[in-house]
Design goal:
- This protein has no helices and 12 strands.
- It is an all-beta fold.
- About 15% of the residues are buried.
Amino acid sequence: MRVDAFLADSAEVVNNKIYALGAGWNTIFVRAFPAMHRRLTVAAVVHVPFTETNVSHRFELRLETEDGKVYPIGARRGEDGQVEAIHAMGGEFTLGRPPLLVDGDEQVACFAFAVDGLRFEQATKFSWIVSVDGEESTRLPMRVQLSQQ
């Protein structure tokens, strides 16, 4: 499946359309390290072929460092009450096959994942990895660097 994705300051999906603010960037400028980025959103459009409609699919988003290590994108309390890192977001989706959909046509599913309070310890390069059904579909590079003042 083909996936088109982008980074934005904010985005949401309404009626399967993405509404975004501050879209199309790939660098976060900070004044000093450690740094915290208040909010960013990864938005994606998944193009589902006719033959893959009416089938459940799994969408997953994760962040990797430039050396391929999974980077935490949040935290939550586990069942034992301890704080544990969140390393991925996603879920299941199924697109139907409307009566007027012609063999060969595709359906699209839109997603927007907001990530609040990402913490960075140093300047480095990352990649947002979007996977569908366990296969990497796209990779969005993102750099964190000191601002020039």
